[in-house]
Hints:
alpha+beta; D-Maltodextrin-Binding Protein, domain 2; Alpha-Beta Plaits; 6-stranded mixed beta sheet
Amino acid sequence: MSRRIKLDVWSDQIELAKVRPLTLALVCEKMSFEITPSFPYGTRLRNEVRRESRSGIPIEFDREPASLSLSRQDGQGKKPFALPRFFQLTCLVRKAAIQVAIQGELGSFSHEAAERMLPRSTVVPCARSAEVFDRVQRGSVAAAVIPIENSLAGTVAEHADLLVTHGVFIQGEFLLRIVHNVIAAPGVKLNALRKAFSHPVALDQCRDFFHHHPRIEPVPFYDTAGSVKHVVAHRLPDAAGIASRHAAREYSGNILQAGIEDDKRNFTRFFLIRKSTGKGGIAARQKGIAAPRYQRLIPRGANKTSIAFKVKNLPGALFKSLSVFALRDISLSKIESRPMRGRPWEYVFYVDFLRGDDEPARNALRHLDEVAEFVKVLGVYRAAQLVEAPRHSP
Length: 394
C-alpha cells in the first residue's frame, strides 16, 4: 500500500506524522518508509536517508524560517545542509503490511478470516495456539485472528482460557461461513479416493458425505489446510483433504466436490485480538474495571462487550452477578462457564453483552466488580453481521 505526501515548507505538513523533529531513521525502521525526493536534491537526500537509516544514526528534518534542512547527528555533531525555501519535497511513503498471527497453516479458515478482517495484512502461521497469544503479548506481531466459537461444535475451549490468562484485548468480531470441500492433487479423480484427511471437527461436520461414499475412510489430521498441503505435496493418488476453497488456491489443489458440509448454516466466530494496555492474567482483582487503560483500544461504533469473571463461593453469588445487567436492561447474548486450570471445581463465567463502552455498561462492570472475585474485560468491539457465503461452482 502506498500514498504520496507533499511536504511544503510553508505548511505544517513538514512535520510528517506530527513529530517535531522527525527522526527518519526511527520511522524508516518502524514503518518501512521509502523516501524518494524529487529533482534536484533527490539523489543526495535519498542517499543520505538510506545510508543513515542503515547505520541507525538519527536523521532529522528541522523547520527553519528560511529553509528546510536535513541534518544528521553523529559523533562529530550536527551536519546540516539546506534546501531552498520554495522547494516542495514529494515523498513516496510505503507502509509495511502489518503482521497478523493465526493458528494453523496458510489456507486455513483462520487465514481466510484474517484476510477478510485485515485486508493486505501479512499472515504469520503458528503451530500452537499458545504461540499465537504469546506473539501478540510480546508485540512480535501487531494482531492475531483466532476462532472462538463454531455454531455446531461450540466454544474453542483453549482460546477461551488463553483470553483470560494473556494480556490481549478483543477489537473485532467476524462470522465466517464454513464450507468444506474435497481437495486432491491435480489429476486425482473422486472415484479413486480411499482416504480423506482433515481436522476431526471438520470430518464430524461431513458425516453425510462419508455415508454416501463408504469406500472413503475419514482420517483425522492436525489441520484442514494442512491436509490439503499434505496430499498435494506428496501427490497421493488415492487421498484427498477436506478444507476451504482458500486451501485449494494456496496449495494448487483440485476441488473434486464442493460444499460437502452437512449443515449449510455452519459458521465460525473469529476474534481480532491485539496487545492489551493493562496487565494480563487473573492473579489480581481488577479494581476500577472501567478505567481508561483499555479505552483507547475500543473501535468506533463498538456495541458488544466480552468479559470473564469468577463469583465468590456464597449463596446467590451468580444471581447477584447477573442482576447487575438485568437492573440496567443490558441484554446478554451468551453465557457459559469453564473450569479454572489448577483449581478443581472452580469456574470462570464468560459473558457477552450487547452494549459498548457507555455509562450503563461501565456502571454494570463496576457493580460486578464489587460482587465478583475477579472481572476481566476481554474486549469491546462491533458485533459482526451474519453474511452468507457466495456460491461457487465446483
